[in-house]
Amino acid sequence: MFGIEVPYINLDQIYESGQVFSWIKLRDSKYVIPFGNQALKIEQQKERLIMSCTDEQFYNIWFYYFDMNTDYLAINYSVKRIDEYMKICANRGNGVRILRQDLFEMIITFALATATNIPRIKAMVESISKVCGIEHKQSMREAGRITWYEFPTPQSILENQDKLDQCKLGYRKDIIIGLCQDIVDGWLDLYELSQMSYEDAKEYLMQFNGIGPKVADCICLYGLHHTQAFPIDTHIEQILEREYDCDYETFAEWYLDDLKGYEGIIQQYMFYNELNPPKEVR
């Protein structure tokens, strides 16, 4: 077991922030996080994280995964100074971080995430992993025997594409198969993509079927860690109209000039607050 004090992180807020779809929730503040062929049991006690890993595993994998090089305290403080609404968002979502997740998994996940909701996205991701991925079982103290499925490779999805009907993807099935084929054929080069600037990466991604501006921004933010990406869905559009009566370009120019490079973190504060309002106003 490994323990560490980390300010400005909240596992429950991250779980509810719309960026993770494969975590296994054991109870509040306690999760199993599948990551490739391994899984981490993690529990939060105030600012202390207790993890089922060694010191070496933490610093080689999980330090990077939880983006612990970024000064979220300073960013959160700056966001609170924008205005009263952003102060509320930053206070309520002050434990949200942009995780460093697998690029291919994020491409497929957010290609699935069009015109649907978070529970449905989670169900589709889990179903694809069960049908095309590798099953793992692991005994964990206090959690018992955990089963999870490693997110499949593009090759595995193509080899099992006849089974995808079980996943109830609808029109998304052809999009997923097309993206996997583009990767296998070398048209969608994940290494090349990982080396691009935010602007180039977004433009590159939008050449492929099923990836529009919002999906491209989600991939840039959650898969490439371009924290200047600001995905705009209906929730964000409604916030901008309701709170600021303007579009994103105007909002960014008027309010985010001093926070360039961190727009995606601000978007997460806004998104989390919108989807998880205080209980008295739900």
Short account of what is shown:
This protein is an alpha+beta fold and 282 residues long.
3D structure, described in words:
The protein has about 280 residues and is α+β, with helices and mostly antiparallel strands. Helix content is about 50%, strand content about 15%. It is built from 14 helices and seven strands. The strands form two sheets. It has a five-stranded antiparallel sheet, with no helix packed on it. The protein has a two-stranded antiparallel ribbon with strand order 6-7. Strand 4 (about 40-45) and strand 5 form a beta hairpin. Helix 3 (about 70-80) runs antiparallel to helix 4, helix 4 crosses helix 14 and helix 10 crosses helix 11.
